[in-house]
């Protein structure tokens, strides 16, 4: 497979996953704005900080308001991380490699993008309508990923898609946790905290799965569930193991036989850190610091993957 094709498939996976997760980000904050109108202003700012979009936002807006953030993170073409921009990037990546994905997948993604272009916040200003809109985005992303899972041959293209998808998911789950915990490191939980943590679980469709394992909402258990659980598909641990498996399948090696390149070394080290760091150690370090360190390491992993597989000037041809 050409490096250009592998790069496009990898970023196709990342962008579609990111579109879904940004829709989740927005949904959880809109729900919180209804439940906690007196404290939600701070959480809109936390959302910008957790997604690292605040610097870009400040370039275009003088104040932090709910309406402006919704428009900025959903429809604003000036924001490279808006849902509109990311969906366009996903479409462009697929357009250049249509020969490696099912025809129906390209047609569905293209229709999704074209329909999205006709939707504006001004035309559907009420928050209830926006919640339905974000639910529609999540459902469409599930449809697209389900189509790939059902119809894409298990070849290099498949594993580059899986690699991008789960690296992105691990990163975004860490940012969901930041929204719940950032500026709130008290061990005891008040009524506001219960609503915030419940919303964080619901934002990753984890509420019912969490309650199957734990009887009550407890931030220590929530942190352990979303970071270290090996069975829940949106947990960081689960996502990294899926990404590790895909990366080793691409090279044809196995983790138990040792790494072959710097990308495999980085993902195995990151996996072991998540596996062998106890939740009590995470809390002692500070969850925000732990998540920040994880995001830096995850970005380093992305850079190593680029260097090995996508950088034609110095990468390995395979």
Number of domains: 1
Determine Rg (CA atoms, Å): 19 Å
- Put simply, the count of helices is 15
Low-confidence stretches: none
What string gives the helices and strands in order?
HHHHHHHHHHHHHHH
Structure summary, number of beta strands = 0
Please bin the fraction of helical residues.
Answer: over 70%
In round numbers, the mean pLDDT is: 88
Structural class: mainly alpha
Sheet of most strands: none
- Tell me the strand percentage band: under 5%
Termini, distance in Å? 7 Å
* Molecular shape: globular
Describe the structure.
- With 318 residues, the protein is an all-alpha fold.
- The chain has one domain.
- It contains 15 helices and no strands.
- Helix 1 packs antiparallel against helix 5 and helix 12 runs antiparallel to helix 13.
- The longest helix is centred in the first third of the chain and has 33 residues.
- It starts with a helix and ends in an 8-residue tail after the last helix.
- This is DUF403 domain-containing protein.
- InterPro entries: ATP-dep_Glu-Cys_Ligase-2 (IPR051680), DUF403 (IPR007296).
């Amino acid at each position: 497979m050409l490096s250009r094709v592998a790069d496009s498939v990898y970023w196709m996976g990342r962008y579609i996953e990111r579109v879904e997760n940004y829709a989740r980000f927005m949904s959880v904050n809109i729900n919180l704005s209804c439940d906690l109108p007196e404290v939600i202003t701070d959480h809109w700012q936390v959302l910008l900080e957790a997604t690292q979009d605040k610097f870009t936002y400040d370039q275009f807006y003088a104040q932090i308001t709910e309406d402006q953030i919704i428009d900025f993170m959903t429809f604003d073409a000036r924001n490279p991380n808006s849902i509109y921009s990311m969906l366009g990037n996903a479409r462009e990546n697929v357009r250049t490699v249509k020969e490696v994905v099912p025809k129906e997948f390209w047609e569905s993604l293209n229709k999704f993008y074209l329909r999205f272009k006709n939707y504006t916040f001004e035309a559907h200003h009420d928050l209830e309508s926006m919640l339905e809109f974000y639910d529609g985005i999540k459902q469409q992303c599930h449809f697209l990923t389900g189509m790939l899972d059902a119809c894409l041959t298990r070849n290099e293209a498949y594993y580059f898609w899986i690699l991008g998808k789960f690296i992105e998911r691990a990163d975004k789950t860490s940012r969901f946790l930041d929204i719940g915990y950032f500026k709130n490191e008290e061990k005891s939980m008040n009524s506001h905290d219960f609503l915030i943590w419940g919303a964080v679980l619901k934002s990753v469709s984890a509420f019912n799965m969490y309650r199957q394992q734990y009887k009550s909402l407890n931030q220590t258990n929530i942190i352990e569930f979303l970071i270290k659980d090996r069975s829940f598909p949106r947990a960081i641990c689960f996502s990294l193991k899926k990404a590790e498996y895909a990366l080793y399948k691409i090279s044809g090696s196995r983790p138990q036989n040792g790494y072959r390149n710097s990308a495999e070394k980085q993902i195995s080290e990151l996996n072991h850190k998540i596996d062998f760091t106890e939740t009590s150690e995470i809390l002692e370090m500070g969850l925000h610091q732990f998540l920040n360190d994880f995001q830096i390491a995850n970005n380093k992993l992305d850079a190593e993957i680029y260097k090995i597989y996508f950088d034609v000037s110095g990468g390995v041809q395979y």
